[in-house]
Amino acid sequence: MTSFEAAKEDVPQCDVFEDQISSYNQRVAANKAQLERLLQEIGQRTPPDIEALTAARDTAQSKLEDGQQTLTRLKRDLEAKHETQKKVDALSARIAELEAEYGPIGELSDLVNGNNDRKVRLPDFAIAAMFDEVLVAANQRLGPMTDGRYQLLRPDDVVGGRQKRGLDIAVFDANTEKSRPTKTLSGGEGFQASLALALGLSDVVQQNSGGIKLDAIFIDEGFGTLDEDTLNTALETLYELTNDKRSVGLISHTEQVKSMITEGFDIEVTPSGSHVHPRRSAA
C-alpha cells in the first residue's frame, strides 16, 4: 500500500485531527502566556540553589525522623511514669493510713529520742534531773565549806541556735558574780568541790533508794592540797557525817589528818611486803 492510499484512510478523521491541532495550539499559546508571566515575575531573581535546598530538605527530614523517634520514646516514658505515679499515689495513701495509726507512738518516740524542742533524749533528761538533785545536795555542802563563795551549776550550751543544758559542771563565784570552769579552781578548792559532789551524790542516792541507808563513805587522799583552814573545814564536814551514824574512812599521807583520826591503821611498806599496824589516838 502506497503512502497516499494509507493517508486516504485518515480523511474521515480530519475533523478529529483538526480539533487535536487546535487544542494543541491553544495549550501552546497558554503555556507561552504563562511562561511570559512567570518570566516577568521572576525578573532578575537569582535562581535557587537546588543542591543546598535539597541538602536542607534531607537534613530537615532526618531531624523529623529523629524527633518522631524521640516523641515515641518520650510517650513510652510518660506512660511508664504514669504507672509509677499511680503506684506512688497508692503507697502514699497507705503511708498516710499507717502514719495516722503510728502518730501517737511516733510522737512518744520522738519525745524519748530527742526529736523535741529541747533536743534532749529521755535518758539524758532523767540523768540531768538526777544530776541537778546531786548539784543541789552538793551545794548544801560546798557553800559552808567555802563560806558561801562557790556554787556548782550546769552551764547552758548553745546547740543549733538553741540553749541546751548538758552534763558539764561550772562553778559560780560569788566574789566575781560570774561562772567559770571548774578547772580554774585551785587544788584545795577542787578538792572541796569533789568532796561536796561525792557527799551530794551519797545524799541523793540515799534519798532515792527506797529507804536503803549508805552507812559508810571512803575518801582517798587529796588532803595534801589543802591549807590548814580548808583542811579543818573539810574534816569538820566529814565529822558531821558521823553524827548521822555514818562511818567515814579516810586514806591519807597527811600527818595532820592522821592525827585527827580517832581510829585507824598505818600501812608500812617494807622489802618483805606491806604490813598493817592498828593505831588508836591517845586518850
| CATH topology tier name of the largest domain | Rossmann fold
Distance between the termini: 181 Å
Radius of gyration (CA) equals 55 Å
**For the record, what CATH class of the largest domain applies?**
Alpha Beta
Which percent band covers the strand fraction?
15-25%
* Assembly context of the chains: single chain
How much helix is in the residues? 55-70%
Indicate the mean pLDDT: 82
User: H/E element string?
Assistant: HHHHEEEEEHEHEHEE
Low-pLDDT residue spans: none
Give the overall shape, derived from the CA principal axes: rod-shaped
Biggest β-sheet strands, sense, barrel? 3 strands, antiparallel
Q: How are the SSEs placed, and which strands pair?
A:
Elements: H1 3-8, H2 14-42, H3 50-113, H4 122-145, E1 150-153, E2 156-159, E3 162-165, E4 170-173, E5 178-181, H5 187-207, E6 216-220, H6 228-243, E7 247-251, H7 255-260, E8 263-270, E9 273-280
Parallel strand pairs: 6-7
Antiparallel strand pairs: 1-4, 2-3, 4-5, 8-9
Helix pairs in contact: 4-5
